Amino acid sequence: MQLPWKRLFAAIAFVFYLAVLFKIILFKFGSPNIPFLWTMLQQFMEEPFRTDHWRLYNFVPFQQIAPIVRDPSLYGFIQVFGNIGLFVPFGIFIGCMIRGISITAAVLLAFGLSLLLECSQLVFYIGAFDVDDLILNTLGGAIGIVIYKRILQQPDTAANRTVQKQIKGV
Fold first, then answer.
1. Helix, strand, or coil (residue 128)
2. Domain segments of the chain: what residues?
3. Which of 42, 54, 70, 141 could form a cystine bridge with 87, CB 3.0-4.6 A?
């Protein structure tokens, strides 16, 4: 049984993680400009199918990933593993916070959050909607929930206690 303060700490950490995630993906480490976002939302609502806007986005799966795999670079490595890595904590948090959640349900939640963020970029004209980011983010969430289910949630065994000590740094 978890102590109430542990669950509270996990909830606060999750909210902090989400705030950082939104800031990184939507605002690229900059500050949110509410008047600008409001203007962009109004513009999108007036002309949702403006062709100059839609050309900037990738709706073809693996279109951005394939060149990175063919011609690896530091930028490509950061792009691919950064998108995956950003969502690994999401999968772990979901496993911790929603007891008994299935891997499929957690992956669908990761997909939903990633879709929300990618669509926000589309609607607010910030960043660029990229289906490859959606794929990589969802993969990160899947890795996170698998880590939780296979390592962190294992029954109390000697091997698991050793892993838990290594994770906690004890």
1. coil
2. 4-48+56-168
3. 141
Rounded to an integer, what distance in angstroms lies between the CA atom of residue 165 and that of residue 155?
14
- Residue 65: HSE in the Cβ half-sphere, 13 Å Cα cutoff: 17
Q: What is d(CA 146, CA 127) in angstroms, rounded to the nearest whole number?
A: 29
Structure tokens at 111: 């997909």
94 and 113 Cβ atoms separated by less than 8 Å: no
pTM of the model: 0.81
**Nearest Cα residue to 115 out of 94, 95, 129, 104:** 129
115 burial (CB, 10 Å; 0-12 / 13-18 / 19+) is middle
Cα separation of 134 and 115, whole Å? 6
